[in-house]
Amino acid sequence: MTGWELTTLVVVLSLVVVIGVWFVGTANRLDRLHVRTDAAWAALDAALARRAVVARAVSGVVDHDLGDRLRVVAERAERAARADRETAENELTRVLAEVDRPALALALAAELIDAEHRMVIARRVHGDAVRDTLTQRRRRVVRWFKLAGTAPEPGYLEIAEPTLDEFPRPRPSARVILLDDQDRVLLFHGHDPDRAEDKFWFTAGGGVEPGEDLRTAAARELFEETGVKLEPDVLEGPLWRRRVAFSFEGRNYDGEEWFFLARLPEDAKIDTVGFTDLEARTIGEHRWWSTTDLKATGETVYPVQLAELLPTATTWDGTLRAVR
Fold it and tell me: Which single residue of 20, 52, 128, 129 has CA 20 to 30 Å from 5?
């Protein structure tokens, strides 16, 4: 074999190896894309199923006509075959839009909106996965050499996304009436970051984390905001419940506040080092308020009835009371 023939053979073999490696790499990438698409569909299917379950729960607390229609379309969406899924899910979205969200119990409203948020995210992830897979499959060389193998071509699920921004976001929160040895209550003075001129006084506490019970949330928030460490079972209550619509940082909320009672331990001091960046920017001071102080002040205090309710907090009879 001459040198020229040997060189030609080496070049040809090198090209075969390079092309073979490219084919294998492309086929593997397609396989990974199909796996990604399958996983995205499984997540979307689970999110849609959860929404249907929550929708059936909602159907039991709304008016009879709407409840019947909602239950029917939710069950239809759960049973729908893949080919009929778009129609069934779009009908469920349409009927859910008729539900008066603020009229629902806060926990159920929060569950519904969370299910819808997760559905929207899962749909977008699935759409991205389908797009990337189809882009790769439609390349000429992939089609000519059938590098996709026998894997079926994935398809989009064209369902309408609910307009979630139209609804106030549910926000359950746990708050603490922290009293000192003179029965004075600790209040913080803060403001909305978008409206610094609107200042108000409020109790320690904050939002309940997913999966967290109210009592645990109240103890956690108390420690984060005051440095006072109490076991959840030390808290008394909840004494009061307050339902309030409010806005913060430009977003509307449907809030439900649950108030617990606690005593400041003798050796404890208020320490706000645990404030988040947002709290540090929006809370200017804190102080102890007596009932006399509350009745005399012209400043805004939440809850509005605190001056009236504070004297009875220490003799709580076990009845949960709705307050403003």
Answer: 20
Q: Let me know: does 195 contact 282? Beta carbons within 8 Å.
A: no
CB-based contact 123:93 (threshold 8 Å):
no
pLDDT of residue 269: 92
Report field, pTM of the whole predicted structure over 0.70: no
Number of independent structural domains in the chain: 2
Q: Is 174 in the same domain as 318?
A: yes
- How far is it, in rounded angstroms, from Cα 245 to Cα 106? 12
Three-class secondary structure of residue 179 per DSSP? strand
The first and second tokens of residue 99, run together, are 């539900």
175-231 pLDDT, tens digit per residue, is: 999 999 999 999 999 998 888 888 999 999 999 988 899 999 999 999 999 999 999
The arithmetic mean of pLDDT across residues 262-280, rounded, is 91
Beta 251-263 vs 321-322: how paired, if at all?
A: unpaired
In which residue are the tokens 């609804």 written? 167
Of the candidates 49, 117, 96, the residue with the CA atom closest to the CA atom of residue 77: 49
Which range of residues forms the domain containing residue 185?
169-322
Nearest to 183 by CA among 263, 127, 64, 296: 263
276 plus 209 within the same structural domain: yes
Residues 282 and 202 in one domain: yes
